[in-house]
Amino acid sequence: MDRTQGQDEQHEQPTGGSAPAVPTGPAVSTGPAVSTAPAPGAPAAGPARVVSLTAGDFTLTVNPVDGSEIEPLRPGTEPGRPARRDAAARAVRDSAARPPVLPGPAVPARPLLEREEERERLVRLLGRGRSVRLTGPAGSGRSALLDAVADRCAGLAPDGVVRLSGYGHQQPGELLHALYATVYEAERARPGRIELLARVREIGAVVLLDDLEMGGPALDELLRATPECAYLLAATPDTRAPSDHSHVEEVFLGGLGKAECLELLESGAGRPLTDEEIAWAGDLCFASEGLPLRFVQAAALLRQRDELNHSDEDDEEEEPGVFEGRPRDAVQVPLPTLAEGAAPAELLASRVSESARAALRIACALGGELPHHAHLPALVGDTHADTAVAELLACGLLTPVGTRYRLAAGVARQLEEVGYGDTASEEARTAARHYAWWTGHASVVPERVAAEADAVLAALAGADVVAAVLLARTAAPAFAASLHWEAWERVLRSGAEAARKAGEVAEQAYFHHELGVLALCEERLDRARAELETSIGLRGALADKRGTVAGRRALALVVDRENAVAAVSPPLRLEAPAVPAAPAASPDAVTVATPAAPAAPASKAPKTAKPAPKTAKPAPGAPAASEAPTAKVAPVAPGARVAPVVPVSAEAVTRMTPVVPVTARSEPPTTLSEVFEDAFPLTPKPAPTPALRPAAAPAPAPGRRRRVLLAGAGALTVVALGTVVSLALSSSDTSPPAEGPSVTRTPTVTAPTTAPVVSKNDPAPEPPVSAPPAQSAVPGQSLAPTPGRTPARTPSRRPSATPPNSPPATSVSPPPTTAGPSPTPTETVVPSPTATTQTGTATATSPATGR
């Protein structure tokens, strides 16, 4: 059923000061019940509303047809400093922020009982510039107390008293814009965030913020942005508390006493109470904890009961007819039970008019939001349905919220339990179609649509996708023009989702375009780019040239703004730390200190070491010619005994070792060997050292010198041990040679009791660590074993020389010297040890490789 057919157009005009400062278009009406209004869903009459706004640094043209257009402000058109409103303008603005005056009999004012102490305390704290949070349960009379405080604080601040509603606001942005629009005269202009914060910082007013829904960091941000304002925040106990460092005073508002409850009940009933009613009221005061709302509703129950009983008494004065079935004894309506007094919504709704019950169904379908009383005739289908708001308000079923009314606390739940929410989908669809026609009408100014924002959003949420797309398409430009951008964004998102479900690609592209423009105005560049690119893609698929051009223009502004932001604050770049360069080093290497020990790999070591000639005598402190890569181990002090110099491989000193390659291989590996070489390098990585050793150090570390001396001592000890073993095996019962025993300075090495048999396959014995270096005292004697002598032969005075073709498998010591009578001094030179272990050969183990 279409309830908007055949209804008058009076709901388009302000009634009773609902919007006194906003002019409206003329009404077209031919009678109380005849109207020229088009059917819901039909295009709006008259030209489309095109409104130009100033949004920060941009000029925004709201175009309901192709989408809003945005461009930078032209030079010379920047808005100047806004002027403050005077006292008369503030009074007009304050009256517009109050709930509208309802048609029908005036609702009597309710007395403010037992609140003098709280009112004086709040006025005193606000006069000192302190912010106060008034906490009380729903129905405790917070709004009535705020009205009383506003009358006492009229002259405390230079900007007067500002009334705001925090219902539905979880962030302080829209509240700051509402405060700015109340104090400054800035029509069709929405400042940017920087200018907004600069202007609201200068505002000095007493701000009465009712129905607060935010706390914590959001409330702290609101208080920090307006340091010259004193706030009176009315909230329920379940609202998030402010931060500890916000310095907001807490005032709790409790229930009334029994005497005040009886006084409020008598004032609402309009007569004195009977003893039975007084007892009933006492029980209700205990059950409801003295909430004033419960006694307003109880007074409405008593009035309805009196009306029913008085109507029966009037009927008794007339004699009933012969054919009437009415009994002569009238039935008195009893007092409500205590349960009905605690939850009176069902009983109250059953005794109101049919139009009022229809309004309650609409409110339940819209989540508790009641449309403006001018819309009820069209929504209900009754020309006198606008009086239903006053009837419901007198019953305590409605409560004022800003410039509108909504169901009181707990009423919606009680009505839904008795079946008032069964037709919610039908009522929401009817409301959505009605608002789609009304918001798109040319005679309705954007400010009127903004005042009805909550009801429009509730209808949008409960309607089907087709009605939701139509309503969002017509309401979005009105919200944009009224500067109610929080509602604008919510409508656009709901419309985009409904258009996606309905398959309306063109409408979906429009909503994404508007979301991109909104994000650009609010300096959310990433969101603006995403929404505009989506809109351009959808319109490109539809071959919509005009819409695509508008989207590309907005996207160009986004790119320009991103470039400007990047130029002002370039991104932070973290560069790698510089690596100190070393001379004669590969670019892929890092200078590290390796242990001073032989570290030549086994794969690169020669199988045999070529001994130096016996007549060659190396220069002091210089390496041999065949051992070019070796280095001098340590300087020796004058006069000290010097052990034989043992050449050490160049791998044992500090060198440039590639530890972590800086750059990868220039070319990818082509063979399997290169792949394995990359994965398993042949050269082992040295152990990391805590610090780098300077290359030009004059003296080596003590540990390095000790390791070199121990290696040389070990080699000489093995040579001496081999000589002793050879002599022991070749000795017999004959007398020793005639030359006499040779005297040496080498300490005597005690062999074990059982002499081991040394073969060619056995490894060399481990040298003792504590063996000191030895030096021969007889020039003609050599400590190296004679390779040409065998254990089975009898020792002779003339040792035989080793054949030239004998394999060098027994040792790597120098060739034997011929013993003669002349004491020819000889010097034994031990070459660098190799990786091959043989009998009588000293093998040094590298601490780095373990070989």
Helix amount: 25-40%
Strand content: 5-15%
Low-pLDDT residue spans: 1-47, 584-634, 642-664, 732-763, 768-851
Largest sheet: 5 strands, parallel
What is the straight-line distance between the termini?
Answer: 99 Å
Can you describe what's shown?
It is a single chain. The protein is an alpha/beta fold and 851 residues long. α16 (424-439) packs across α19, α20 (485-502) runs antiparallel to α21 (505-521) and α21 (505-521) packs parallel to α23 (545-568). It is extended, with a radius of gyration of 52 Å. A 5-stranded parallel β-sheet has the order 6-9-10-5-11, with helices on both faces. The protein has a 4-stranded mixed β-sheet with strand order 3-2-1-8. The model is unreliable at 1-47, 584-634, 642-664, 732-763 and 768-851 (pLDDT under 50).
Provide tags for this entry.
alpha/beta, four-stranded mixed sheet, 25 helices, 16 strands, disordered N terminus, disordered C terminus
Give the SSE layout:
Blueprint: E1 51-55, E2 58-62, E3 69-72, E4 83-84, H1 87-96, H2 116-127, E5 132-135, H3 142-152, E6 161-165, H4 173-183, E7 184-185, E8 189-190, H5 193-200, E9 206-210, H6 217-225, E10 230-235, E11 249-252, H7 258-269, H8 275-288, H9 292-316, H10 338-342, H11 345-350, H12 354-365, E12 369-370, H13 376-380, H14 388-394, E13 398-401, E14 404-407, H15 411-417, H16 424-439, H17 446-451, H18 453-462, H19 465-481, H20 485-502, H21 505-521, H22 525-541, H23 545-568, E15 590-591, E16 656-657, H24 672-679, H25 702-730
Parallel strand pairs: 1-8, 5-10, 5-11, 6-9, 9-10
Antiparallel strand pairs: 1-2, 2-3, 4-7, 12-14, 13-14, 15-16
